[in-house]
Amino acid sequence: MKMKSLTYWVFLAPCLLALTIVLVIPFIQGVYYSFTEYNGFQVNGFVGFDNYIKLLKDDQFLYSLWFTGGFSVVSVIGINIVGLLLALFVTQKMGRLNTLFRTIFFMPNLIGGIILGFIWQFIYLKAFEGIADLTGLEFFKGWLSDTATGFWGLVILFIWQMGGYIMIIYISFLNSIPDELLEASTIDGANGWQKFWKIKFPLLAPAFTVSLFLTLSNAFKVYDQNMALTAGGPFNSTQMVTMNIYDTAFKVQEMGYAQAKAIIFLIIITVISVVQLYFTRKRETDL
């Protein structure tokens, strides 16, 4: 028994060491630096909660929080709707086309965020301008030079990137639904909508838990797409929290202040994620 316990810790030790070095120690350092005036090279003094008080008066940081929150809500809803619709489509009986469509829909997730940003930047700046010139529709002009259209540009990019990934999760749960239930509903005269709403949708509750958690956490952490597509412009009106923290740390060299922002952002994400998991898990047990 002791040998098994020793073997267990021997195999676990490298993972624990790596997590400690990569996550635990930097986190503790970050918490410490958030209470100091740290510029990335040296600590110039202990300032207590001054950094946290300062960020509550930082209009740009508060705006970026609001912008990121709105982006996250719209993106999470859009990604899950698109992912579920794609999953329902590719689980139809289409033979080898199922595999083809699954591959096509999943491919955007394999592209890096920066490359995706430049791809969609080209679409918004060149393709949309071309459509505007051909049709005369002003709607397609200046998408990245306006805050509202810049917001929707980021949402469209993120849904396009994540939709196929979330589709895979929904596919796995749709395929696990017993055929007997669907056959019984057919015998009872249920149509396609009734099968989905009364049978498939309730049984997808665990998939919603996983998908909502993944999309929420990823939406809050968006940086490279934001940087490549709009760079926070115009006038920082499309700046996400991650970009605001990065700029504070590496452009202004206020590392301690940036750490305070990061700690607050971490707390917000943690609270939202825990609440989401609580309610979605509760829905699973209620069903």
TrEMBL record:
<keyword id="KW-0472">Membrane</keyword>
<dbReference type="InterPro" id="IPR000515">
    <property type="entry name" value="MetI-like"/>
</dbReference>
<dbReference type="GO" id="GO:0005886">
    <property type="term" value="C:plasma membrane"/>
</dbReference>
<feature type="domain" description="ABC transmembrane type-1">
    <location>
        <begin position="65"/>
        <end position="276"/>
    </location>
</feature>
<protein>
    <submittedName>
        <fullName>Binding-protein-dependent transporters inner membrane component</fullName>
    </submittedName>
</protein>
<dbReference type="InterPro" id="IPR050809">
    <property type="entry name" value="UgpAE/MalFG_permease"/>
</dbReference>
<keyword id="KW-0813">Transport</keyword>
<feature type="transmembrane region" description="Helical">
    <location>
        <begin position="262"/>
        <end position="279"/>
    </location>
</feature>
<dbReference type="GO" id="GO:0055085">
    <property type="term" value="P:transmembrane transport"/>
</dbReference>
<dbReference type="Pfam" id="PF00528">
    <property type="entry name" value="BPD_transp_1"/>
</dbReference>
<feature type="transmembrane region" description="Helical">
    <location>
        <begin position="201"/>
        <end position="220"/>
    </location>
</feature>
<feature type="transmembrane region" description="Helical">
    <location>
        <begin position="103"/>
        <end position="123"/>
    </location>
</feature>
<keyword id="KW-1003">Cell membrane</keyword>
<keyword id="KW-0812">Transmembrane</keyword>
<feature type="transmembrane region" description="Helical">
    <location>
        <begin position="7"/>
        <end position="28"/>
    </location>
</feature>
<dbReference type="InterPro" id="IPR035906">
    <property type="entry name" value="MetI-like_sf"/>
</dbReference>
<feature type="transmembrane region" description="Helical">
    <location>
        <begin position="151"/>
        <end position="173"/>
    </location>
</feature>
<comment type="similarity">
    <text>Belongs to the binding-protein-dependent transport system permease family.</text>
</comment>
<keyword id="KW-1133">Transmembrane helix</keyword>
<feature type="transmembrane region" description="Helical">
    <location>
        <begin position="65"/>
        <end position="91"/>
    </location>
</feature>
